[in-house]
Amino acid sequence: MGEVHATDAASHFAALSISFTIPSAYLSKSAAAGGIAMVTSIGALGGVVGPAFQGWAKTHYGSMDVGLYFAAIMVFLGAMLFLIGVPAKVLAGKKI
User: What are the boundaries of each domain within the chain?
Assistant: First the structure.
């Protein structure tokens, strides 16, 4: 169970540092502020939905494991989406 916590936390903090640089790689300087606001809004939504889902999963399944595994899977899918969706040549041309 401890490895799920460690994997979830490590993945979250690794992704957090680069998530705010993605909008400026695709958008102009004036539009990048809107992109950063969207990233922040999605993060805030996760802060509301995540604990609610964790509580539901604990009530429904009787264990915190399901919610934690779900969080780890979501972080992994987000990382895969980033690797597939952001071309390396776009990021290589920007100083982030």
Answer: 2-92
